[in-house]
Please model this.
Amino acid sequence: MAGQRKRILALAIATACVAALVVPVASAGASSRAQGASAKCPLGALKKASKPVEITFWHSMTRANEETLQRLTDEYNSSQADVKVTLVNQTTYNETFTKYVAGLSTGDLPDLVQIEDTGLQQMIDTQSVLPAEACVKADKYDLSGHVQRVVDYYTVKGTLWPMPFNVSNPVFYYNKKAFTQAGLDPNKPPTTLDEITAASKKLKDSGTVSKAGFGLKTDPWYLEQWLAKAGRPYVNNGNGRKARATAVEFDSKQGLEIFTWLSDMVSSGLAITNSNEGPSQFDNLLGIGNGTNAMTIDSSASLGTISSVLGSGAYPNVELGVGPMPGPVGKGGILVGGAALYISNKSDPAKQAAAWDFSKYLNTAPVQADWAAGTGYVPVVEAATKLPAVQELWAKDPGYKVAYDQLLTGVNNVATAGPVIGAYKAVRDAVITAEKSMFTQGVKPKVALKAAKAKANPAMVEYNTRVGG
Model:
C-alpha cells in the first residue's frame, strides 16, 4: 500500500512540475543584445488583418496548470473576434526550448512561446524574439502595476525581452505533526541553515523520521538562491547584466560556507539526498508523506499538487507546513523562478501583434488572480492580490502567500536581479557534479567549489565565442 501511495504521489508531482534545465543554443551572431533598442512592434498590423488572426502558443504546463491555462485561453478566444489562440503542450520547458531551437532551422515555430527563466540569454541570442519592450512602448503599456522584481529579472540592458507570466520560487516544506512530535514549534519553521541543522538533529534523535530530518534534492538552483539571499552575485559583470558573464563568482566566502553546510549535513546523516532528475527527483517531497524525512526545499509551483495529495486523507500523520526558504543572512532576497512569454519575430506582423494582445490579457489583474488561484503560481500583477480569488486562497491556506511575500521582502540589487548566463546548463552541470563529488566521494567543499569553477568558466567563454558575444 505504501509503495502504491508513493507511485501515485510521484506521478502527481511529476506531472505538475517541469524540469529546470535548458539546452545550449546555436550560434546567433554578435548583435543579439542590440535588437532591443531598434525593434518595432507592429501593433497596426492586427487592425488591418483579416479576422480572426490565428496564433499558436507553445507551453509546458501539465495537469491543473494546463487545465487553468486552457480555460483562460478559451475565455480569451470567446471574449473577442480579432484573435484566436491555439495551445500546444510541449510537456516540459526543456522539450519546449529544444523544439524551438530546432524550429529556427525548420521553420516550425510558434507565435508565442513559454520559456523558463534560465533561458533568457539564450532566447536573446537566437535573434528570433520581438522584445516585449518594443510593444510596451508602442502600446504605451503601463508596467507600474507589475511586481518590480519580476520585470527587472527579465530586463537586460534596459530592454524587457519577454512578458512575465508564471512566477515561482523555492519555499520550505515541512510536516507540522512531525515537528510537534520532535518537540519543535510547528508554527516556527527554520529560517537559517543552522536552524535546519538543529531541527534535523531533533527530528532524527527523537525517532520521528526513519532516515534524516532534511530531504535534500541535489539541485544547483539552491546555490543560486542562497547566494542571492546573501546578497552575492552568481557570475561577474553585474551578474551578466552589464556585459556577458565570463566567470562565476560563487567561489566566494559565502559559496564556501554553503558548500560546507551541504557537505556537513550529508556526512553527518542529518540530510538524505536525491537527484534533481529521473525517477528519484521527487523523493525529497515524497519523504514528507512516508516519514523518511520531515522537511525539504522545493519550488512553490509544487504546492497545489503536494497540498492536494498529502491532504487527501491517505497520509493522516502529515500536516503540511510552508515557510520561506531558509538561507544565509544577508542583504539580498529570493530569485525569480518560473517562465515568461516570448513573441517570435519570425511570425508575420499581424501574428506578432496578436501575440502581444494575448500576452497583455494574461497579465491583467483578473486573469493573474484566476491563474494564481488555479495553479499556486505567484501573481505578477499586484492588483491581482486584492481580488477575491487570491484573497480567499491566501486566507484558507497562507502557505500560498509565502512565495509572493518572498518577492516583495527581498531587496532589489545586482544579486537578486538574477544571473544572465548563456551557458546556463553547463554552469549548473558543473555545480551539481561538484556537489555530488562531496556527497558520494568525500571531496572537500573547497576542492569541489574550485572544480565547479574550473568547469563553468571555460563553458561560458566557449558559449560567448560561439555566439559572437
Observations:
- The CA atoms of residues 30 and 468 lie 4 Å apart.
- The chain has two domains: 2-16+169-334+416-467, 32-168+336-414.
- The chain is about 50% helix and 15% strand.
- The chain has a mean pLDDT of 91.
